[in-house]
Amino acid sequence: MDYNQIGIDAMQKGDFEKAAEAFTKAIDKNSGDAVPYINFANLLSALGELDRALAFYERAVSLDEKAGAAYYGAGNVYVMKERYQEAKDMFEKAYRTGMENSDLFYMLGTVLVKLEQPKLALPYLQRAAELNDADHEARFQYGLCLANEGLLDEAIAQFSIVTDLDPAHADAYYNLGVAYAFQENREKALAMLNKAIDIQPDHFLSIQAKQLLEEA
């Protein structure tokens, strides 16, 4: 009987008690396998038991130092704890095990932004967007980093793709407005800011930016 799969299925159905029982049986059946410890840690993380989750991820790594999923899971826990340096370290360890997916690159990019290192975040967010065309949030964060580096044409291209993917993304329209304003394209800037306000009438930053442009 595959207790790991039973536990995963139970988690997906929201039956956390059954999931815990199944993962416990999986550990009892093969205590030298890192996988059930990772699964149990994922369950604990979902339940908000963050310190216990970290303990299970650490146990998984002690059994298999190449368990990328354990490092990735621990990184997510550290993000929830707002301990971004430790999260970065865990995500980098996951990457060094050979893990390469859009979620990992996105998380690594966002923690670097949190650590005020947007230039270092750029390639990771770019890769996240490349690996998952539908992930408009990764592309939005990539656009913000480009804008931060003064690469306005490239940032505008990314924000425009975001608005194509998600026409209700007020923040993307706001950032398009700011980028066009910096390029002294007042007409386009106002059009983008108005779109943001249409989508979200209380979008304070857009309202403020529009007032500044109209008063200039």
TrEMBL record:
**Top-rank lineage group of the source organism:** Bacteria
Matching entries from PROSITE patterns are given as:
TPR, TPR_REGION
Task: Tell me the ranges holding the TPR repeats.
Answer: 34-67, 68-101, 102-135, 170-203
Task: Name the UniProt key words of this record, in alphabetical order.
Answer: Repeat, TPR repeat
Against InterPro entries, the record matches this protein to: TPR-like_helical_dom_sf, TPR_rpt, Ycf3
Q: Which SMART domains match?
A: TPR
Q: Which segments does the entry list as coiled coil?
A: none
What's the protein called, per UniProt? Tetratricopeptide repeat protein
- Which PANTHER family does the UniProt entry name for this protein? TETRATRICOPEPTIDE REPEAT PROTEIN 6, UDP-N-ACETYLGLUCOSAMINE--PEPTIDE N-ACETYLGLUCOSAMINYLTRANSFERASE SPINDLY-RELATED
Q: Which organism is it from?
A: Bacillus glycinifermentans
Q: What Pfam families does the record point to?
A: TPR_1 (PF00515), TPR_12 (PF13424), TPR_16 (PF13432)
User: Looking at the keywords, is Zinc-finger present?
Assistant: no
